Amino acid sequence: MKTKRGFEMLNVCGEHIIVPAGNENRDYSKVISLNPTAAFLWEKMTSEESFTIDDMVNALLEEYDVEENIAREDCLMIVERWKEMDLIEE
Fold first, then answer.
1. Which residues pair with 7 in a beta bridge?
2. How many folded domains does the chain comprise?
3. End-to-end CA, the chain
4. How far apart are CA 46 and CA 70, in angstroms?
5. What is the CATH number of the domain that holds 16?
6. pLDDT tens, residue by residue, 32-43
7. What is the residue range of 65's domain?
């Protein structure tokens, strides 16, 4: 999976948000706030050509003190949310 073109993450006053950018997205009502872990995963995903759930889980395991099953559940949940928001594609 990868992030869709036309979205970028910004740091505004210490808050990470995803906003539409460029001509691909003209719906400026779509501004999404990310917690630090989600921002970490978004940054990892945008730095790769393709990123899998396993890649996300491994990134969390390397960065945070978390059990693998919890990391996987969290990754599956965030991917589902990002799909619902039309931020990523397979």
1. 20
2. 1
3. 4
4. 23
5. 1.10.10
6. 899 999 999 999
7. 2-89
